[in-house]
Structures are given as structure tokens and as C-alpha cells.
# Entry
Amino acid sequence: MTQAKTAAHADWEVGEKLGVSSWMQVSQKQIDAFGAITDDLEPLHNDPEWCANNSPYGQPIAYGFLTLSLLTKFMHEATADAMRGHAGTRSFPLNYGFDRIRFISPVLSGSRIRAHFTLKERKQRADGDMLRIDVTIEIEGQDRPALSADWLTMWVMEAAYA
# Structure
């Protein structure tokens, strides 16, 4: 893990880089398992022979939604688990969704990726803080990222449901 932010979410300032995850290799086994679990078996992702003969990439690529689904793992790493609920309290982060997601470059099977997180906006609400987090997933050795997104997370406070 690199450049981890260890302070609680309330200490984060708008514009602050929250952290960068570790590199992770995306294997063909993971790509195949994602296709199986989502019932989306597509040659572009799951058939190396087909890709060698038909795909402009020459090999399988990860599902965009697989890359997207890794954000929670990467966020926990990058923020030293500050996004998890805290022991002894009843506050926790709740995935609120996305305002923007762009799949910019394909992630080839075997590529290594990592995520960068920056707090873009914080809005205090009666039930907690709405955090808008700018996310970029980079592909090792490439100039263009795999993914860019505005991720919304609601930090629910105990008082909201007590």
C-alpha cells in the first residue's frame, strides 16, 4: 500500500488525495470467474484463442464492471481502512452510487492496475456526510487510465438511525 491516509473521514479536506492502492494483477482466472458469476460469458473476455484471431487487443480484456467492482477493495487499501465502520460506534460508509463512470482503456488479461482517490466534495446532511470521491484506475505502463469515476459515498452517522 502506498501513500495511505489514516485519519478518519471527518478529517479529510476537499481536494485532498486520500491515497493510492497497491498494484493488483488482473488474471484470466479472475476474468473468467467474474463472467461466470454474472452469467456474461463473452469471447472478448473469456476466449484467448478467439481473441488472438478476432480481437484488436490480441488477448482477452477484463470486464469493465470487474474493474469497477474492485474499487471497494482498492479504497480500503488506499485509505488504510478509514472507510470501514469504526469499532464502538454505529457510523459506517454506505455506497450511494456514481455520478459519472467512464471506461477509458481496456485492461488486458495479466495487466496490473491500481486506484487513486481524491476527495472532490463533502456535503453535510442531517443523516451524515455525502462524500464525492474522484477515482482513477491506472494501468501499469500506460498513459491512459482504465477507468475514471465520481463515486458517491454516504457516511451514515449513528444519530441518523438512533
In short: Residues 9-26+62-160 form a domain with the Thiol Ester Dehydrase; Chain A fold (CATH 3.10.129.10). The beta strands are 17-20, 24-25, 92-103, 112-125, 128-139, 147-156. The longest helix spans residues 28-37. The chain has a mean pLDDT of 87.
